[in-house]
Amino acid sequence: MHQWDVSLFSVTPAASLLSRCVSRGAVSQEEIDSVSSKRSPAFSSHLQEAEQRIRAVKHLDELLLEAELLQVVKESSDVTHTRSLAGRFQMLQMLSDHLQQLLKELNSLRQRLTTPLGHAHLPVHAHLHRCVLEVVKMSLDFMETLEEKLDSVHSSTTDQLSQLSTSLAQLLAQTADLQNLSNQVPQWRDVHL
Questions:
Q1: What is the full DSSP assignment across 151-191?
Q2: Are 45 and 51 in contact (CB under 8 A)?
Q3: Angstrom distance (rounded) from CA 154 to CA 159
Q4: CB-based burial of residue 18 (10 Å sphere; 0-12 exposed, 13-18 middle, 19+ buried)?
Q5: What are phi and psi of 125, to 5 degrees?
Q6: Greatest Cα-to-Cα distance within the chain, rounded to the nearest angstrom
Q7: What is the mean pLDDT of residues 92-121?
Q8: What is the pTM of this model?
Q9: Beta-carbon neighbour count of residue 33 at 10 Å?
Q10: Spatial distance between the Cα atoms of 29 and 1, rounded to a whole number of angstroms
Q11: pLDDT of 64-88, one tens digit each?
Q12: Interval 26-43 mean pLDDT
C-alpha cells in the first residue's frame, strides 16, 4: 500500500477526498493508481483535455517569454555596439553626478530628521498661552515699528546725503569763484596802483 506525502503537493479537494477514502478503507491505493494509470475515458476524458490545454498554454507562454527575452537581448546588444566609448563614459559620468547629488540630499535630509524637535518646539503650559500670545503680538509690533524707523532713517539719510552732495557742489562752486577772485585781486592791485 502506497502512502502519499501530502506536504510535497498542494492538496486539492479531490486529493483530500481520495485520501480520506484510502484512510477509511473504502478504496485501496492500488485501485486509485490503476485507475489513474489507465485514464479511462469515462473518468478523465475532460480532465485529460483540460490538462493538455493547460500544458499547451504554459508551453506557449514559455515560448513567448523566450522570444521576448531574445528580442530584448538582441536590441540591447545592438544598442551596446552602436554606442561609442565616449558616450558610455559620459552616461556613466552623468549617472555618477546624479548619484552624488542624491547622496548629498540624503545626507542633508538625514541630518534634518535626526535633529531633535525638542529644541525647536518647546512645550508651553496652558496657563501661559495668553502670555505667549501677548509676547508674540508685542514682538510683531516691535518689528513693525523697527521697520518704520529703519525706513525713516534710511529716507532721512538719503535726503541728508542728497543735501550734503548739493552743499558740496555749492561749496566747490564758491571755492572756484573765490580762487578766481583771489587771482584777480593782484591784477586789480596792479591796475589801481
A1: HHHHHHHHHHHHHHHHHHHHHHHHHHHHHHHHHHHHHHHHH
A2: no
A3: 9
A4: middle
A5: -65, 150
A6: 161
A7: 77
A8: 0.26
A9: 11
A10: 6
A11: 888 888 888 777 765 555 556 677 7
A12: 66
